[in-house]
Amino acid sequence: MKKFLDDADTFLEQSLRGFALAHADLVQLHLNPTFVSRRALKPAGRVAVISGGGSGHEPLHIGYVGPGMLDAACPGQVFTSPTPDQMLAAAQAVDAGSGVLFIVKNYSGDTMNFQMASDMLSIEHLTVLVDDDVAVENSTHTSGRRGVAGTVVVEKIVGAAAEAGADLADCKRLGDRANARTASMGVAFSSCTVPAAGVPTFEIGAGEIEMGVGIHGEPGRRRELIKPASAIVDELLDAVLSDLRPAPGQPLLMLVNGLGGTPLMELYLLQQLAARRLERHGLRMARTRVGNLTTSLEMAGASLTLTMLDEELCSLWDAPARTAAFSA
Amino acid sequence: MKKFLDDADTFLEQSLRGFALAHADLVQLHLNPTFVSRRALKPAGRVAVISGGGSGHEPLHIGYVGPGMLDAACPGQVFTSPTPDQMLAAAQAVDAGSGVLFIVKNYSGDTMNFQMASDMLSIEHLTVLVDDDVAVENSTHTSGRRGVAGTVVVEKIVGAAAEAGADLADCKRLGDRANARTASMGVAFSSCTVPAAGVPTFEIGAGEIEMGVGIHGEPGRRRELIKPASAIVDELLDAVLSDLRPAPGQPLLMLVNGLGGTPLMELYLLQQLAARRLERHGLRMARTRVGNLTTSLEMAGASLTLTMLDEELCSLWDAPARTAAFSA
């Protein structure tokens, strides 16, 4: 294992300290229990939006804490769910009197722990479950579909609504709608290595790719030989489109997401290929973001996400945001 | 070679098309000759700032085109200098009547081609050469020190000055000063693969690191066994500090730069370790940026850059900028 690492046991805390130092104008780090909150809390009367999950997917979620997106994020150990005490402490810290919306990726550990927090929390709250990955039903750590890069879309849209004064029920409705209109699929060229494990999560041959991979290296649809980028893009997009079934002319938001180890040049190549493919389907890429938005440590690979925008979702996507990893 | 790639011959153009599509609000792509310019040109009477170099270091330079930073960038093929016709066309396109400042990283191909463009260009112009890499004197493609991530600092500072109306001589003076007060050193854990070559640029053992690596995989100071992150940080920082020799209390800008294949969690760990090390030296990290700022395709590794700020440089660093990869 080649990593910048002193000690796997202190890795997360040291990394979070560095994050908080680098973005001291935006965020505040709390330890025992661990969460990251906005430095400037929301005015009273606004819904607080909280997410969380295993670390190793940065900038998700800590990089999306700030005005226009999340109020707090609860990072677990690498690829491990945060614990209910983190979510409770975060909720108590950022609640502005109008309730808390939890955004949870659909993994068994996350849903269980957020449910436990939910059961103990006296503040009014609701949960949006994100399950945008169309690759497989059920998986190593999931019943039902997995939550992947579409989480960024949900966090942006709900965050913007909460900032604008939407009430808790409305934030929940918008989050559910954004999730229902969002689908993703990814592909891996390499595995990643969890520091505490010290060995790659899975083995993959020199010429092989994992089509439909999960963001922890969970198996996808199949292992196959590498093929041209345009063939990969066609397969990913067609899987996403056959799930969403957008009408011709439907304005789409597209995320071209790097899983961590893929150069920006290749992500922009995917952007170009995917945009052309959408055009050939008579569809319109109305908005787009390219970059490492939801990663799997140093995994080489990428995912494509589409969201079927409508006027409301689009204006929430466009609303101002200022976080470590997302400016609008 | 596992890359998102259809054809190495069209890779750069397709990638640039994707970049231009993703950032259509900010930039415009020109082909034959190839350069990227701001969508909204500067008002007349301002100096135009142009950079360029081999591709594969994204977001450098195209990601820094926009208000507050560059007016245009000239991307060469991967790790290959752009040609003089690109620089000439870019200069003619973005000149706003007050001359052009070229920012050039110190590599033989780049300096030669920018010099040729300079000889042919009738518009008033000056050049700032960036050579911030303290690892080695002279190298595979360089006489003197190499230009690496410190280029981002020079582009930001000169870009801000030009935006604010500084004249050509003043832009040159500030660029030279920023460069003289900036030093960097990097370390690689893995090689990278140039698409047209198809094989890794260099071989490196499972437990080895290249201390002082160049951004094209040029040899550094030595090959050694991997060591704890804090020992790596100490060595990188001490090399940089012994070059700059800042006085106690000197405010510093620090870049923690990922070379492409290193996860954000590790970069934030480096940030924390480096900030602590500076403190122990009685130095102050006044500003910082963490992320993939100047990359070497998918190389795993990182570099540290320090700039000795003064009031003028600090206010130019803080000035507003809006580009694909840098917001302030």
According to CATH, what is the topology of the largest domain in chain A? Rossmann fold
**Helical proportion of chain A, percent range:** 25-40%
What is the CATH H-level superfamily of the largest domain in chain A?
Dihydroxyacetone kinase, domain 1
Structural class of chain A: alpha/beta
Write the CATH architecture name of the largest domain in chain A: 3-Layer(aba) Sandwich
Strand ordering within the main sheet of chain A: 1-2-4-3-5-6
**Tally of discrete structural domains of chain A:** 2
| Overall average pLDDT of chain A | 97
Describe what this molecule looks like in 3D.
The structure is a homodimer of 328-residue chains. In chain A, 32% of the residues lie in helices and 23% in strands. Chain A has eight helices and twelve strands. In chain A, the strands form two sheets. Chain A has a six-stranded mixed β-sheet, with helices on both faces. In chain A, strand 1 and strand 2 (35-38) form a beta hairpin. The first copy, chain A, is globular. In chain A, 62% of the residues are buried. Chains A and B meet through helix 1, helix 6, helix 7 and strand 11 of A and helix 1, helix 6, helix 7 and strand 11 of B.
